[in-house]
Amino acid sequence: MTNVVLRIAGVAAACLIGLVAERASADVILSVNSGSMQAGGALSLDVVVSDTSPTEGIAEMALVLEITPLTDVGDSSLNFVNPQSEAYLEEADYVFFDNSDVVLNPGDPVATVGPFGQVVEFFDLTFDFNNELASPGKVLATIQLEHLLGGESIANVIGDEFEIAVNTDFTEFFNAAGDPVFVDLAGTTSGMVTITAIPEPSTLGLLAIATTGFVLRRRRH
Question: Where is the signal peptide (predicted)?
Fold first, then answer.
């Protein structure tokens, strides 16, 4: 009797290990791109399926992102633009390209920005309810950001840093069968935004001259 119980326990443990391994191999890894932006300026960043992620079929997603300042930013802030642009939905690297319910069944916008501009949710699903491959490099969303000085001087905000992170508590993916597709919490990476100085007018003038010269050289050829 004891041997039978032990054998059953061993089989159950093996099955559990197999299920855990199977789930881990199918967890989607997300990556928020990083960038820099001028004080009081704007910036667009992509949220993509990481290069190290396994390919997984998804048919529905709710992607929630949030902004957290990493330095003392005073009265300045980094916000999600409201409303967010939907232009990326028509680009070939979008995960639901040519099969987006938001595009083919217009109604609610793809993005909902929170009341203070620090949180945004992107929601979309496939129009035909079939899976699309969330393969490495596929774009899940393109976010538009704006930096507000809020009474701070430009000098005071230079070097300020903000984190753009996936809120894994509320981000969800599902396949066409309605089964959840899990997010790899350990592998998913946040994006970093750094505030930089606005170029001096003299610098901008030199830049314009250099650009004009480049255009003229190209025309001569």
Answer: 1-26
